[in-house]
């Protein structure tokens, strides 16, 4: 099975963890003059510990933010920030109690005070850093050369290795966590999502015709309109598949590219 492209590699985690330390250390340093003007006592030992602790604690959130930036939709990213911010505040209270106050646990009043004072700022800082990571990943993906479409699928399951030649695949239909690939020898099952499989295929050879179906363009024999605006696709093996109206244009364009006279 092809490796997942959604998990950040170790080098990226180390790089972003280091950048996160500098980001949070710099952010807290930038706020320090305001704290001093606000009348907070300049206990420099405590201040240095607090600054370093902010950098370490912020850098600990970097792996989670990397995963959110790469895999999550915006609603998942927002929820991740909302959940991560109070968790970091509570952990910072624990560290302050251990390192600065000589106690095992912070008092409830300390936790409430820190949540009230820093939760919004921390959530904002997390959101900004998440945006930076997302922007950097988007630009890196845009600069990266496109991967060559695969010619064969290698499926590994329970110690068994199966090689599927995509030249033999007529059409692909989603069946839950598995995808059924129709070949002259029958159905071959692979365990992955249809979307991830589609990204690996040559778009010039395979086209989505329905949310659950991909077809090999070379094996499409005819299109027949249906009364509801959809159409029926007849394949070379005799199969008749539903063509959604939303995907009709893409299939017709691909078929037009394969013949001398455009289809109507």
TrEMBL record:
Against SMART domains, the record matches this protein to: LytTR
GO: which molecular function terms?
DNA binding; phosphorelay response regulator activity
User: Looking at the record's lineage, which domain of life comes first?
Assistant: Bacteria
Locate the HTH LytTR-type domain: which residues? 158-257
Q: Pfam families of this UniProt entry?
A: LytTR
Q: Which Gene3D superfamilies match?
A: LytTr DNA-binding domain
Keywords carried by this UniProt record: Membrane, Transmembrane, Transmembrane helix
Membrane-crossing ranges are 16-36, 48-69, 81-100, 112-133
Q: Which residues form the signal peptide?
A: none
Does the record's keyword annotation contain Transcription? no
Recorded protein name is LytTR family transcriptional regulator
């Amino acid at each position: 099975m092809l490796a997942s492209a959604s998990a950040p590699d170790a080098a990226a985690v180390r790089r972003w963890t280091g950048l996160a330390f500098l980001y949070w250390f710099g952010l807290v340093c930038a706020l320090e003059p305001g704290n001093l003007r606000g009348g907070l006592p300049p206990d420099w030992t405590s201040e240095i510990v607090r600054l370093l602790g902010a950098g370490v604690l912020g850098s600990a959130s970097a792996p989670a933010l990397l995963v959110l930036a790469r895999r999550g939709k915006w609603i998942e990213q927002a929820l991740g920030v909302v959940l991560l911010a109070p968790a970091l505040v509570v952990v910072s209270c624990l560290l302050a109690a251990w390192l600065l106050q000589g106690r095992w646990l912070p008092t409830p009043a300390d936790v409430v005070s820190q949540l009230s004072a820093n939760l919004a700022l921390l959530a904002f800082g997390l959101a900004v850093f998440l945006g930076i990571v997302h922007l950097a990943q988007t630009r890196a993906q845009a600069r990266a050369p496109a991967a060559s479409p695969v010619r064969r699928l290698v499926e590994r399951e329970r110690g068994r290795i199966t090689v599927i030649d995509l030249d033999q695949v007529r059409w692909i239909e989603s069946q839950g966590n598995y995808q059924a690939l129709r070949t002259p020898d029958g159905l071959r099952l692979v365990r992955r999502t249809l979307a991830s499989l589609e990204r690996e295929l040559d778009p010039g050879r395979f086209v989505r015709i329905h949310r659950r179906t991909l077809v090999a363009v070379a094996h499409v024999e005819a299109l027949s309109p249906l009364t509801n605006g959809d159409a029926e696709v007849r394949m070379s093996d005799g199969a008749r598949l539903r063509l959604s109206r939303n995907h009709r244009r893409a299939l017709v364009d691909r078929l037009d590219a394969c013949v001398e006279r455009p289809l109507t």
